[in-house]
Structure formats: structure tokens, C-alpha cells
Prior knowledge:
407 residues; alpha/beta; seven-stranded mixed sheet; binds pyridoxal-5'-phosphate
Amino acid sequence: NSDFFFWGGGAIAEARSVLEHELETIRTGGTWKGERIITSKQGPHINVDGSRGDILNFCANNYLGLSSHPQVVEAGIEALKKYGAGLSSVRFICGTQDIHKDLEQKLAKFHEREECILYASCFDANAGLFEVLLGPDDAVLSDELNHASIIDGIRLCRAKRFRYKHMDLNDLETQLKQSQSSRMRLVVTDGVFSMDGDVAPLKGICDLAEQYGALVFIDECHATGFMGPRGRGTDELLGVMDRVHIVNSTLGKALGGAAGGYTVGPKPLIDLLRQRSRPYLFSNSLPPPVVGCATRAVELLLASNEIAQSVGAKTMRFRNKMTEAGFTISGSAHPICPVMLGDARLASLMADDMLKLGVYVIGFSYPVVPKGKARIRVQISAAHTDQDIDRAVDAFIQTGRKHGVVS
Ligand code: PLP
């Protein structure tokens, strides 16, 4: 707020000029990320500042529609009343409540792993893990398109780094051969890659890891809750739950959507993370209302497999109708449905036109996706009705025709 700051001369004037120059580079590069302001709760129908009426939302990670589920909201309110707004403490000083332990147990049970440790976000879980697990004698083998938080977490650790081509098992094997002399090796991949909605070839990865004596880690942010028959994730979907050793995931997407992340895996690893993991040791505990919401989301999923299955048919409805209309949708069968357009400007213009038709979608361009591979990333939620999906398809056809993408 300019009322409160005076950008005076000297060092601060120089900093201001450097920053303004950097901002201008982003603007002229066409990669400026604006933020639309939502004035309602998260869900398939939202209100957006500057747009009139009800807007159909197709860009949240609210895969199961639990973000505003009445039971999830109620559990958050109950936890707020009973346990307060927050802990004003990290976990090991005076920031652990019974609800934190309970949620950790439920998440370990959900993923069928020995133990769980909560973080303020999955970004933190990824920032904390690798440095604790791997030292200079070890090696990490990472898919080149892994999420930014994995890349940052790996940067913080002292293990030797090997990067394999995206989902390329031959290249992974080459890297495994090259890293043979390391003490411990960890293969690291997103379970589902968020820009394309493509699923890592976990069976092949586990086969290779076993052949070469490596551990396997997956980031399940875009899988937990709805991939696999019981929503346990891509490891369940691909039949390798007992062969993937460590899973990181988020509470901020399908599991209620509030915030928070976690690691599940072998007990000694989780015990060591509690002793050494920096984002855990030096950051506040998850707030009780957030814990309450996530706990109810996990309870709902533990009680019934129906919720996990609720997004599949909707996803296929959108994918099939869009393909029939002549659009190219990347990935397969995942609720992340990237509508491939190629040109960055086209993606952004089409997204703006979609909003004028009452459908909120976002264009993704470089550097978030490779140059020439701009797209509109549509995300389907179980809370969308068939009519919502059909309306979105109609809006795509209308704007697609206007811009010459489909005939
Ligand atoms: N990992 C992946 C693959 C993600 O997509 C995200 C979120 O965008 C994260 C980690 C970070 O999760 P969180 O929002 O809980 O920090």
C-alpha cells in the first residue's frame, strides 16, 4: 500500500528500479500471472470479482468437491471451537494436539504405510525429506519434469543428482547403472504430473528399482483421494502399494483443500524427520480447523470407496465430448484435462473469452509448460454436474471456433 511506504533515494531507489525492470520483463514476455479474485467459497460455482453472476469453475484441484463439503466445514468449525485458532508453536515445543496425532494415524492407515508426519504444506514435505534421508554418499534419480517443490527439496540435499528423461524407463536404467557405486539410491517421481495429467510408469520404475537396489518415492498431490479403486493413489491404481517406499502428498487438493502436507513411509524415516526435518522443526503446527477439515475428509474416504470413484465418469464425459469436438486433450483418464493450444497468446485470449461465457479456466504458458505447448488446463471435480460439464464444452466449442481452433 503506497500510503505506508516511502520509496526514498539511495539503496532503496536502486532496488526499486531493479525490481521494476524485472517486472517489466515479465509483462513484455507475456508471462505475467494475474490473480482473479473469488468472492465466494471454493466450488464448481463461484463468484468472481468483476464478472457478473454465477461462474463455472474448472481450475481448482478440488477433485472430490470436499473443499466446501458440509461435513468437512462442520468438522473445521468444531475443531476451531474446541482447539482454538492455532498453536503458536512448532510441534516439538507445545504444538502437538491429539488431533494432529489422530490425523497422522489415519493418513498412515489410508496409505497403508507404517507412519506419517504432518507438515504445513506438501511443498514443505518435499523441502524437508531429501536432506534428511540422503547424504553425500547417496544418489537421487529424478524425473526431469518433477514438481518445483521436489526440485527445490533435492537442491537442498547433498546427494549426487541424476535426472532422467520424463517417464523414460530406458533412461532411468542408464542412470541407475551410472549411480551404482552410491550407498543408497532414491528414484523420485510425481505419481501424476500436474501439467499434463500423465501417470508415472510406476510398475516399470519399481521393477528397475528392485533390480538395482533403489528406493522409490512418489509425490501424490494429484492422485491422493481419487486414483485407484479406493482412492489411495497411483500406487494403488498400478498395483504397487507395497513396492513404493515413501509417499508425500497434500491436504490442500482433494482432501478438503485447506492446507497441509505429509510424508508416509517407514517408521525410522518418519522418526528421523521429526528430529531433523527443517520445515517441520522450524515452522508452526497445522492449525486445528485445518486438521479438523482434513481429518473428516480422510474419514469420509476411509468409510466409503464411492467418493474416490465419483470423479471418473465426469472426467471421461469431458474428455470424450471435447475430443469429439476436435480438441486435443493431453494425458489419459485423469481429471486434469489439458486442452492443448500451442500458442501462449491464444491460450490466454481463449481463457478470457471463456470467462465472458461464464466459465473460469486458466491458460498455462512458458515457463510453467515448455515453449510452444501452451494450453488451458481444465480440472474436473466430482462436484460438477453433467450439465456443468456440457456447458463448459459448449463454451469451448464457441471460443474454439472464434479463434479457429476447431471448425
Ligand atoms: N507437489 C505437487 C505435484 C503439486 O502439484 C503441489 C501443489 O501445487 C505441491 C507438491 C505442493 O503442495 P502444497 O500446496 O501442499 O504445498
